[in-house]
Design brief:
about 450 residues; alpha/beta; Alkaline Phosphatase, subunit A; 2 domains; 10-stranded mixed beta sheet; 4-stranded antiparallel beta sheet; 12 helices; about 15% strand
Length: about 450
C-alpha cells in the first residue's frame, strides 16, 4: 500500500500559456517541462481565478473563486487568519510544509503571515512589491529579515526598509537562493510526508526598473537576471534577453527538482504540480508579443480574456499518474485544495468552490466530477465559461458571448445569435458574486461561507 504522497507545487509568476514549448512556444525551449508533461498529464483548459497574483494566490490557499474571496484586487490587505486554507490542511494531515519564494497573498500583511496561516516554514518574499526585486537587500525567513550582500543605491532608505527598488550592488540572485532552499527542504524531509510550495517570482518584471511614461527609468533592470547566458548575442533588447533567460531558469529549476526527487528515490512517493498564477505580463520592457507568450489567446495579465486567465498546468508522478496524457478537462485553482486534501488522506469538511481532480489524475476519468461552469471577476470585468461558451463583460460594461471552441481569440460576439445562452450565463453572476469589504472577515470563515451557501440554495 502506497503512503500519502509528498506534494511539490511549483508556481511561476506571470508565466504565459504560450511560454512553454510543450504548449506551442517556438523560440524558447523548455526541455525539462516538456519531459514532465510527456511523462505526466498536461491540461489545456486550466484556469487561474484572477488575472493578477494576490487574488490568484488567495484562491490557491482557500479554494474560493474570485466572486467569494476576501482578496480580489492587488490593494486588498490580507486573508483573515481564521479562514481555512491549504497550509492548515497539510498541518492537520501531519505533513511538514514550506512556502519558498513569493508568498504574495495580500498587501501590507505581517512578515510572518505565511507562518500564521499554517506553513511550518517560509523563506523568500512576503509582499508583491518586494518580489519585483531580484537583488533585494533582504529576504524574509519565518517572519524575520535576513540580510543579503546586495546593496541599494546610497540614500535609498525605502529599499532598505521595504526591499522594493533596483539594487546598485548585485551579488546574490534570489532565484538561486530559493532554489537551494527548495532542494535542501526535499532532502531534509525525505523520510516524512512533505508539502513544498515552491513559488518562484520568475518571470515577473522588476517594475521599478522599467517605469512606463518615464524614459529615464526604462532600463534593462526591468527584466533583471544574473546573466543573459546563451541569449547574450541574440538580436533582441536586453529586456527580452532577460525574459528568455528567466524562462530558461524556470525550466532548469524544474529539472533540478525532478533530479533531486529521483536521486533520493522519492519518485514513487512524490507528485509534482506546475502552473502559473496568471497570464503573461507586458511589463519591464518585455512585450507579450515578442515570444507569443499568450499563445493563441487574446489578452494578458489583468484581463479576463483567455490570455489573462488560462494558464499552463502539469502534473507528474511516475507511480501514481499515468503519463503521456493531454486533457481538455475544465479545471481551475479552487480544485487544488480539494485535490491536495484527498491526496493527503483527509475528508474535506470546509467549503470550497472546487472539487478533487484525483480521479482524472489517476486515470479514472469516468469518475471525475465536472464543473458546470467557471466564474471570474476582476476590477469591473466578469467572465463565465460554460462548455464552449464564454460570457464576457469588460470594465466599461460592454457584454459579449463567445464560442471558445470556434473562436479562441474571442473576436466574434455571438450574443445576438444565442440570446438564451447569453442570458443563462449572465444569470450566474447573481448566483456567484458575493459583496465583500477588503478587510478581515469579522466572524471568520462562518460568515463568508454562510453567504455563499445562501446564494446557492
Amino acid at each position: 500500500m502506497m503512503r500519502d504522497p509528498n506534494i511539490i507545487f511549483i508556481l511561476c509568476d506571470d508565466l504565459g500559456w504560450g511560454d512553454l514549448s510543450c504548449y506551442g512556444q517556438q523560440t524558447l525551449k523548455t526541455p525539462n517541462l516538456d519531459k514532465l508533461a510527456e511523462e505526466g498529464i498536461r491540461f489545456t483548459n486550466f484556469y487561474t481565478t484572477s488575472p493578477v497574483c494576490s487574488p490568484a494566490r488567495a484562491s490557491i490557499m482557500t479554494g474560493l473563486h474570485s466572486g467569494h474571496l476576501p482578496i480580489r484586487e492587488l490593494t486588498d490587505p490580507y486573508l483573515p487568519d481564521e479562514l481555512w486554507n491549504m497550509a492548515k490542511m497539510f498541518r492537520k494531515a501531519g505533513y511538514v510544509s514550506s512556502c519558498l519564494g513569493k508568498y504574495g497573498v495580500g498587501k501590507g500583511q505581517h512578515h510572518d503571515d505565511p507562518i500564521r496561516k499554517g506553513f511550518d516554514g517560509h523563506y523568500g518574499y512576503n509582499c508583491m512589491g518586494h518580489a519585483h526585486n531580484y537583488f533585494p537587500p533582504f529576504l524574509i525567513e519565518n517572519g524575520k529579515k535576513v540580510f543579503l550582500k546586495n546593496r541599494p543605491p546610497e540614500g535609498d532608505y525605502y529599499q532598505w526598509t521595504t526591499g522594493i527598488g533596483v539594487a546598485e550592488v548585485k551579488e546574490e540572485y534570489t532565484p538561486d537562493l530559493i532554489e537551494e532552499k527548495a532542494l535542501r527542504f526535499i532532502e531534509e524531509n525525505r523520510n516524512h510526508p512533505f508539502f513544498l510550495y515552491y513559488c518562484t517570482n520568475l518571470p515577473h518584471a522588476n517594475n521599478e526598473g522599467w517605469v512606463p511614461n518615464n524614459p529615464e527609468k526604462q532600463t534593462a533592470d526591468g527584466m533583471e537576471v544574473d546573466d543573459y547566458g546563451e541569449f547574450a548575442d541574440k538580436p533582441w533588447s536586453d529586456n527580452e534577453k532577460g525574459f528568455a533567460r528567466m524562462i530558461q531558469r524556470i525550466d532548469q529549476a524544474v529539472g533540478k527538482v525532478v533530479e533531486k526527487v529521483k536521486e533520493l528515490g522519492l519518485e514513487k512517493d512524490t507528485i509534482i504540480f506546475f502552473s502559473s498564477d496568471n497570464g503573461p505580463h507586458n511589463e519591464g520592457g518585455h512585450q507579450v508579443t515578442t515570444f507569443n507568450s499568450a499563445g493563441p489567446f487574446q489578452g494578458f495579465k489583468r484581463s479576463l480574456h483567455e490570455g489573462g486567465i488560462r494558464v499552463p498546468f502539469i502534473a507528474w508522478s511516475p507511480e501514481r499518474i499515468p503519463g503521456n496524457r493531454v486533457t481538455d478537462e475544465l479545471a481551475y485553482f479552487p480544485d487544488l485544495i480539494e485535490t491536495f486534501t484527498e491526496l493527503a488522506g483527509l475528508i474535506p469538511v470546509h467549503y470550497s468552490d472546487g472539487h478533487s481532480l484525483v480521479p482524472l489524475l489517476t486515470g479514472n476519468e469516468g469518475k471525475q466530477p465536472k464543473h458546470p461552469y467557471l466564474y471570474f471577476e476582476f476590477m469591473g470585468q466578469i467572465a463565465v465559461r460554460r462548455g464552449d461558451f464564454k460570457y464576457f463583460r469588460d470594465k466599461e460594461g460592454e457584454e459579449a458571448l463567445y464560442n471558445i471552441a470556434d473562436d479562441v481569440h474571442e473576436d466574434h460576439d455571438i450574443k445576438d445569435k444565442y440570446p438564451e445562452i447569453f442570458e443563462e450565463l449572465k444569470a450566474y453572476i447573481k448566483r456567484e458574486h458575493v459583496d465583500y469589504r477588503p478587510l478581515p472577515i469579522p466572524d471568520g470563515e462562518a460568515s463568508l461561507v454562510s453567504k455563499m451557501r445562501k446564494r446557492r440554495r
